[in-house]
Design brief:
The complex is a heterodimer. By secondary structure, chain A is α+β, with helices and mostly antiparallel strands. Chain A folds into two domains: 5-164, Uridine Diphospho-n-acetylenolpyruvylglucosamine Reductase, domain 3, CATH 3.30.465.10; 168-259, Enolase-like, domain 1 (2-Layer Sandwich). Chain A has eleven helices and 14 strands. Chain A has helices spanning 12-18, 32-37, 73-78, 80-85, 87-94, 99-102, 107-113, 120-126, 140-143, 210-218, 243-259; strands spanning 5-8, 23-26, 45-48, 58-60, 64-68, 130-133, 137-139, 144-146, 149-150, 158-164, 168-175, 182-191, 194-200, 207-208. A five-stranded antiparallel sheet of chain A has the order 4-5-10-6-7. A four-stranded antiparallel sheet of chain A has the order 11-12-13-14, sandwiched between helices. A three-stranded parallel sheet of chain A has the order 1-3-2, with no helix packed on it. In chain A, strand 2 (23-26), helix 2 (32-37) and strand 3 form a beta-alpha-beta unit. Chain A is globular and about 55 Å long. Chain A starts with a strand and ends with a helix. The relative contact order of chain A is 0.12. Chain B has two domains: 2-77, Ubiquitin-like (UB roll), CATH 3.10.20; 86-152, DNA polymerase, domain 1 (Orthogonal Bundle). Helix content of chain B is 33%, strand content 16%. Chain B contains five helices and five strands, in the order E-E-H-E-E-E-H-H-H-H. Chain B has a five-stranded mixed sheet with strand order 2-1-5-3-4, with helices on both faces. Chain B is globular, with a radius of gyration of 15 Å. Classes of the chains: A alpha+beta, B alpha+beta.
């Protein structure tokens, strides 16, 4: 790892004040530190944001669940308040990486990284999340712009993520047995206004599977997906799974998600 | 350079370290506590698991500067007055190891499991140990050891 200056910020203003073209924010570091160790990334300044109070805390209202960006996966997985409002979020957080990763990795770090196989982006998209940053509020649909890319500007810091509470929802992941990232992960959310289905791990980035949404809008049941065919032409194909296999996983995961929706 | 104070296995240590020093290197090279192993160095294998403020973490993926002021427990800190911790004793009894390289991480991770779940099922043990890889003997005896430690503690 190349050397850098480590800073620990105690307020959002202090963190953004330290930011430059050669800096990066550090939260759990579960992707960032390995990337720096492999010299895929290097920075002059590393700005730790975990001690900023504003980035912590869970607020549940009648319409939404707002989670501080530095909240760890293990905290979300074990949160009784979140479990009451959106149990699928607890399931999702409890299946990320392994126990040690969940004890360090954070919500804000996960979505800022926007790994195409990460779990949290699917929840953001299916639950119409609003990403609160140091500068503005960004809708999830406009936040995830491409593989490892987001709408965040240089120095912009995620403060919290606000998820809208659906009638019911469920997340089903088919993990890669070695990395435990999603080979395919499907988040199904049934909102009053309609069903939203976000898929991770299958393409270059997170996306909504409209064919499944339309079928579930008409009939919210596993059977409604029996005759759906997923176009596999732009699905990932690699040593772990072919595009056709991933297409099949999307349907079977979506069916399981519908069956377990609560 | 940063001055970092940690409580390691109950003892306060203050060292001036490079900002980018990993916790695993701090423990092994600065404190000479070589029971914490570095296997893959890419946060996959879990040989480097220690506890920071009571929670299991991978010390090869953590900056020492990041945890200034925290309490760290390594494998060397588990036994009391020369008596093995119940988890260490159970691994010994059930031969939950072959070469022993992964064992410190397996034990530190398993102790954290029992802190979270006093009576885990086989499936829960296997799921919890997903982040710890053994390449010798398989997991059967490890699971048996964790089960017995759960009963004894």
């Amino acid at each position: 790892m190349k050397s850098f200056n480590y800073h620990s910020a105690s307020t959002v203003a202090e963190a953004t004040g330290l930011a430059s073209k050669a800096s990066a924010y550090l939260s759990g570091g579960m992707t960032m530190i390995p990337s720096m160790k492999m010299r895929l990334a290097s920075y002059k300044d590393v700005i730790d944001v975990k001690k900023i109070k504003q980035l912590h805390g869970i607020k549940v209202s009648s319409k939404s669940v707002t989670i501080g960006a530095a909240t760890k996966h293990a905290e979300v997985a074990q949160s009784k308040e979140i479990k009451k409002a959106i149990p699928a979020l607890c399931t999702l957080a409890g299946k990320i990486g392994d126990a040690q990763v969940r004890n360090r990795g954070t919500l804000g770090g996960s979505i800022a990284n926007n790994d195409p196989t990460a779990c949290y982006p699917s929840a953001c998209l299916a639950l119409n999340a609003i990403i609160h940053t140091s500068e503005r509020k960004i809708e999830a649909a406009k936040f995830f712009t491409g593989m490892f890319e987001t709408a965040l500007k240089k120095g912009e810091l995620i403060v919290a993520v606000e998820f809208s509470i659906p009638e019911k929802s469920s997340y089903v992941k088919f993990p890669n047995p070695a990395s435990r990232y999603a080979m395919v992960g499907v988040f199904v959310a049934k909102h009053k206004a309609g069903v939203q289905v976000a898929v991770t791990g299958a393409k270059a980035g997170i996306y909504r599977e409209k064919a499944i949404e339309q079928a579930l809008d008409k009939n919210f049941s596993e059977k409604a997906l029996d005759n759906i065919i997923i176009d596999s032409s732009d699905l990932n194909s690699d040593i772990h799974a072919s595009a056709d296999y991933r297409a099949s996983l999307i349907i079977s995961s979506a069916k399981q998600a519908v069956a377990h929706c609560k | 350079m940063k001055s970092v104070t940690l409580e390691v296995n109950g003892k306060k240590v203050t060292k001036t370290i490079e900002d980018h020093l990993l916790l695993s290197s701090f423990i092994r090279e600065q404190l000479n506590l070589t029971g914490t192993h570095v296997g893959c160095d890419t946060s996959q294998c879990g040989a480097c698991v220690v506890h920071v403020d009571g929670k299991s973490v991978k010390s090869c993926t953590l900056l020492a500067a990041d945890i200034d002021g925290s309490a760290v427990t390594t494998i060397e800190g588990l036994s009391t007055n020369g008596e093995l911790h119940p988890m260490q004793a159970a691994f010994k009894k059930h031969h939950g190891l072959q070469c022993g390289f992964c064992t410190p991480g397996m034990i530190m991770s398993s102790v954290d499991l029992l802190n979270n779940n006093k009576n885990p099922s086989d499936a829960e043990i296997r799921e919890w140990l997903e982040g710890n890889i053994c390449r010798c003997t398989g997991y059967q005896n490890i699971v048996a050891a964790v089960k017995e430690a759960a009963q004894n503690s």
